[in-house]
Amino acid sequence: MKKIVPILWFVLVSFNLIAQNSSKPNIITFIVDDMGWTDAFNPNYHTPNMAKLAKQGVKFSQAYATPVCTPTRTSFLSGMNAAHHGVTNWTSPVKDKNSDADDQQFSPSPWKINGLSPNEYTSYPQLLKQAGYFTIHVGKAHWGAAGTPQANPYNLGFQVNISGHAAGHPQSYYGKDNYGNLPGKVSLQAVPDLEEYHGSSIFLTEALTLEALKSLDTPIQNKQPFYLNLAHYGVHTPIQSDDRFFQKYLAAGLDSAEAKYASLVEGVDKSLGDIMNYLDEKKVAGNTIILFMSDNGGLSLAPARGKKAHVQNLPLRAGKGSVYEGGIRIPMMVKWPGVAKVNQVANQYMIAEDLFPTILEMAKLSRVKTFQTLDGQSMVPYLKNPSLKNENRILVWHYPNKWIEQDGPGINYKSAIRRGDYKLVYDLRTGQKELYNLSQDMAEQFDLASKLPEQCLQLTQMLKSYLIQHHAPMPVDKKTGKVVEIL
Q1: Rg (CA), the chain
Q2: How much is the average pLDDT of 445-449?
Q3: Which of 198, 264, 281, 299 could tie 235 with a disulfide, CB 3.0–4.6 Å?
């Protein structure tokens, strides 16, 4: 009996530890910057790990973000739609500087140019930390201007921050350039915290991956559940070649610009593979959720990647900055061992703010209080049953800003709303309305506004009500001094 009791005690303790571990899964959000909907499975790009992740979980065919980065990242963190939180454009790293381009017709809308203050909402990393998670941010942050609390991930619930600051892109991807930290050449886009790799041949994507893996050692050794937000700067401009992969794309016949871009895509794919391999080696893969996504549609303006403008995201229309599908539809895959279905596609449409309630449900945090009212809805039901659909759900995109000087398709001063298969695109300049049936026309080539006036009017009124309800920022007409209204 004296020998049996300690053994029994050991078994009970071991069982309790396993039960505690299984009750709180590890969670990784793997975010790629500016990656287009078709990039993950483009036959011209080598992305075996993205394909592997899709086979091990659920791929969302109709996942959405906002047209540009900071609004999406703020929606991820807050669970609010951009029209609600008010960060409708990318934030400048310079405090109090409006990133909107000048416009002859409109004065800038009163959007939150410095980002959303942590005093205005409760972030989910903060809630995870309070629930016992070890919270880590690695890579691009871009939640606010330099010198503001929101620019610092430590103020948003992260216990570790590596390279996250106010800038939205790297000054350089090259270790030989110190990632922009060269004497006399440093700008606000220089990537911080990676001095160990300065002067080396290590590409930024690889350096961030190595640091992310190091950061996971402590919680795994301590058997503490972790949350890792690995937010790569790739594949954002500058489009610089990742020389581990660049030459093979040139040899395959891609032009130099596309070969550079393809090498950036493969670099983040390798990072994903390295993360997955590490989890296997540490024997925690079975209790680790991976959510893979982009922060907006792929860049499609010439000459950044060569080719003709607005064709890089075909069959979707336009690209980054646009409320057409090419600017807002993103790759999204979720692996949740033992819970999410395997090798399935969910066709239910979802949006960036859904990440917040999804992660809370994954972490089994059901009774939490948040300063803000959430707009997002949990994706967990669709992970368990990908065939589920909610045709009555409303999604809204609101971009009362001028992103770039030229007016491209769906770019600058546009709003949109989707319900079921129908999507309305509204031009804030002219009041023009376009209506598309996405189930039949994902390329948005056939405007049905004149054929379905009642559907068009209904969606317009829904959009108007939504923007009024959330006190969404609107541009001001310079001639009249009046705020633009949805008509």
Answers
A1: 23
A2: 98
A3: 264
